[in-house]
Every structure is written in C-alpha cells, then in structure tokens.
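--- STAGE predict ---
source: upstream dedup step, 1 unique chain passed
mode: sequence only
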Amino acid sequence: MFLVGLTGGIASGKSTVSKLLSELGCNVIDADKLAREVVAPGAPAWKKIRQHFGDKVLLENGELNREKLGEIIFADPQERRILNSLTHPEIHKIMLWRIFKLFIRGHCFAILDIPLLYETGKILPYMTYTIVVNCSKDQQLERLMERNKLTEEEARGRMEAQMPLAQKVKAATYVIDNSGSLISTEKQVRDLHGKLQRSKAHWRLRLVLSSVVMVTLGVLFYVFS
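--- STAGE serialize ---
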C-alpha cells in the first residue's frame, strides 16, 4: 500500500479535487474532517485549547468559535504554532489508525488530504507521491475573500501564513491546475486517477515494509497514548 499526499494553498481548490477523487472511488482521509473530530466538546484537544486560549474561543454550546480562533492564530504565528501542537498529535493518531484499517483490508493506496502537508513536514516522508492543487495568487486571493467574507488585508494575511503555492508546486509529484474551468480540473483528476491505479509502487518491498512500520507505530501510539 502506498500513500498519496494531497495539498494546496488556502482557497486553491484542494477540497474540489479531494471530492472528485473520492467520487472516483479513492479512499480519502481528510485532515480537516479529523480536525473537527478532535476538537469536539470534551475531547482531549478541545480541553487543551480551552485551557490555553480560554472561554473566549468557545460558543455558548461549548463548540469552538472558529472565527474567533482564526482571528487569533492568523494574527500571531506563535499562537498558531501552539494550536497546531495541541491538535496535530490527535489528528495524526486517528489518521494512522484509518491508514492501518485500509492496509489490512488490502487497499493499494490512500489519499491523505492535508492542508499543511509541507508546512509541518511530519507525515511528508511517508508519502510516495504528492499532489498540489494550484491556481494564481490573484485567483486565490479573490476566492478566499469571497468564500470567507474577508478584507483583502485579512485574506493576504491568511495566505502568507502558509508556504507559497509556487514553492509547493516545485516539490510536488503531480500538479492539478485549478485556474480554469471545473471541466478542465475534472479531466486532470481523472487522468491522475488513472496513473495512480496503474502505479506499481505498492509492489515495491521497501514501500510495503515502510507502510507496515508506520501503521504499527501508529497503532501502538493509538493504544498506549
């Protein structure tokens, strides 16, 4: 079994590509969805966030006030690093467990949808291939402002909090250009899906062994943490 990392920049269209791959039958593990699971009221990461940031980042029902928390972490890189240190271990724990379940079921590959794949770098060494969803900076800015109802200054601040897309593109195995029409993006995703299906990487002993080691460590971490 081999692992494929899917990433991009904020508002570059990664979620669209992730959805298309899922519709084609790929097993997609979405880090954003896992992030919501680990910060549910009462969860370990939720308790740590409340302890550090206080009740000001909570709604009346106890759920995270994502807008307020976003304002804090995108204005202060140190606070952003602290938040990541509180949530990422829990996210990785669930992710590794799900990879393990796919592995023992005999799946050839899994897509790991991780927004900060390159920024954190912790899971990157385990990826056989990486996919970066790209678009122009102007498109990224416009989409982000429209989607999140942000000012230009706020949107630029969030973009600058991530590694530049151009840098990720240079490091990627595959690039999906999402600057055109949805039809164009869909065609690229279908072509890429075909390449992944035809890949023989999962037959390489080195990758199989590394997968076994990774998921075994993940299970041990999950059980004994």
